[in-house]
Structure formats: structure tokens, C-alpha cells
């Protein structure tokens, strides 16, 4: 069987493309890092990942400028055809700015605003826990029901928020809330540090109604191997190189592509 092939999109300011490509490769996919202005035919790719960073220096607001690049129109078209798209951190911000997520209607007001926490109002980097929330998202098919994932965040703007009346209820009804910030026991407590940025309803990840596009703020590529997890120095060499919890998202992406 031919290997699934993913395109990792590099915008000016992206800085997580290499580790994201390695995460795709770790589950048996091929991965090419493509510039935002590539002339390659994207239809030859089976899926897409928008990695983290600071595209266009977060001018205006995070993800706003990159969302207007022509390549995003192509990715939107490919997503409508059922191909998987994963947006991580800045990639999530780009997907929100394009409207691909939540993808309910064109005028939905959903944003990833500045962090709210008692320590700092800007960039915040730490390990958190997120829980797999019941959803129709294809990226969680390798996760257990309610599975808790230790995972890092690293952002200054990453708080899911909206002024759209009834939107949150609609997202919940549509099973579009994919991940929620939680404690080690899985309790979704809406206070710092459990909710690290003040995100509405503890949301850490949202998908489109069809479930093939995921926008998430935490970094699964940074917990793709056990050696990346806190306390790795206490593990054996073999354990350090075993798959980490973040790899399950990339595995699910691969399996979805193979099943199409």
C-alpha cells in the first residue's frame, strides 16, 4: 500500500515544521514541508498540517495574515473534499481566522484571544492536561473515551472565545468540542492553572462539523515520544523512545487516510 503523504505548511515565522514533519513520519506517513507560496499541486497530498510558530509575526492578531494567503483557499477546498487538516497552535489560529473551524456558517465569530491568567497576560509555556471529549473528530479515533493526555502549550494568544450568542451550545450539540483542559484526574475545572489561558468552557481543541479539520492549541508533536515528557530521565532507554501520547493523533490521521 502506498504511504499516505502529508503536507506541512511553512509560513514566514513558522518554527515547528521540522518536529511536526517527524511526527507524521513516525507513524508511517511521508511528509513534505511546503512553503506558503509553493506552486506544487496540493491535490497530490492526502492531508495537511499547519504547525506552530508566529506566522507574519502575529501582525494584526495571531493567524490573521496567514489566513489570507492563497494557499488557504486551496486547503479549504481540499478539506471540503474530506481530506484531514490539523492546525496546531498558530496553525489553529489560522484555521479559526479562515472560518474552516468551526465551519458552521460564514459569519461565525470565534477567536483565539490573548491569555488570561494570574501570572502573565502574554506568552505562556507549560505542561497541561487535556481530556478527549466525545466528538466526531477523526484525529481522536486512536484515543480512549475520556483519555487524558499530558501535553505542552506555548502561546500568548490561545483562548477560545466568542461573542456569538448560542454558538457554544451549538458547538457542543454538534460534538465539535474535541479537547478540554483538565486536571490529572480528568476534572475540567474552569480556573487557573487547570485552564491555563481562560478559554471558554475549557476548550483546548475544536473541529469542523464533519470532523476532518481540527484546530488545537496544545502541541501533540512535542509529546510524540516518551523522552519529551516530564520525568523522562527516570525512564529506561527503550521507554524513552516509545511513542508518547501525542503520536496517537498522527496515527489516527494516517488510519483515516488509509480508510478513505
Notes on the structure:
This protein has 260 residues and is an alpha/beta fold. The chain has one domain (5-259): 3-Layer(aba) Sandwich (Rossmann fold), CATH 3.40.50. Helix content is 21%, strand content 24%. It contains six helices and eleven strands. It has helices spanning 17-26, 70-80, 90-98, 167-173, 237-240, 247-259; strands spanning 5-10, 30-35, 47-50, 85-88, 110-114, 124-132, 148-155, 157-162, 177-182, 203-207, 213-216. A nine-stranded mixed β-sheet has the order 2-1-3-4-11-10-9-6-7, with helices on both faces. Strand 10 (203-207) and strand 11 form a beta hairpin. The protein is globular, with a radius of gyration of 17 Å. The chain starts with a strand and ends with a helix. The model has no long low-confidence stretch (mean pLDDT 94).
Amino acid at each position: 500500500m502506498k504511504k499516505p503523504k502529508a503536507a506541512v505548511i511553512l509560513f514566514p515565522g513558522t518554527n515547528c515544521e521540522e518536529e511536526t514533519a517527524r511526527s507524521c513520519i513516525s507513524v508511517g506517513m511521508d511528509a513534505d514541508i511546503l512553503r506558503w507560496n509553493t506552486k506544487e499541486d496540493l491535490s497530490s497530498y492526502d492531508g495537511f498540517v499547519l504547525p506552530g510558530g508566529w506566522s507574519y509575526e502575529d501582525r494584526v492578531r495571531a493567524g490573521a495574515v496567514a489566513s489570507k494567503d492563497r494557499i488557504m483557499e486551496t486547503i479549504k477546498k481540499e478539506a471540503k473534499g474530506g481530506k484531514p487538516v490539523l492546525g496546531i497552535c498558530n496553525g489553529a489560529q489560522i484555521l479559526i481566522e479562515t472560518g474552516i473551524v468551526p465551519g458552521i456558517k460564514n459569519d461565525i465569530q470565534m477567536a483565539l484571544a490573548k491569555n488570561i491568567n494570574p501570572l502573565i497576560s502574554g506568552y505562556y509555556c507549560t505542561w497541561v492536561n487535556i481530556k478527549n471529549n466525545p466528538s466526531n473528530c477523526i484525529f481522536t479515533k486512536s484515543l480512549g473515551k475520556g483519555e487524558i493526555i499530558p501535553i505542552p502549550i506555548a502561546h500568548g494568544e490561545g483562548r477560545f472565545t466568542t461573542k456569538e450568542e448560542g454558538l457554544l451550545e451549538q458547538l457542543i450539540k454538534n460534538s465539535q468540542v474535541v479537547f478540554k483542559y483538565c486536571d490529572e484526574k480528568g476534572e475540567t475545572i474552569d480556573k487557573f492553572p487547570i485552564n491555563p489561558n481562560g478559554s471558554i468552557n475549557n476548550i483546548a481543541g475544536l473541529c469542523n462539523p464533519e470532523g476532518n479539520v481540527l484546530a488545537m492549541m496544545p502541541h501533540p508533536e512535542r509529546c510524540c515520544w516518551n523522552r519529551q515528557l516530564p520525568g523522562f530521565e527516570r525512564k529506561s532507554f527503550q521507554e524513552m523512545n516509545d511513542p508518547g501520547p501525542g503520536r496517537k493523533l498522527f496515527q489516527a490521521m494516517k488510519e483515516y487516510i488509509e480508510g478513505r
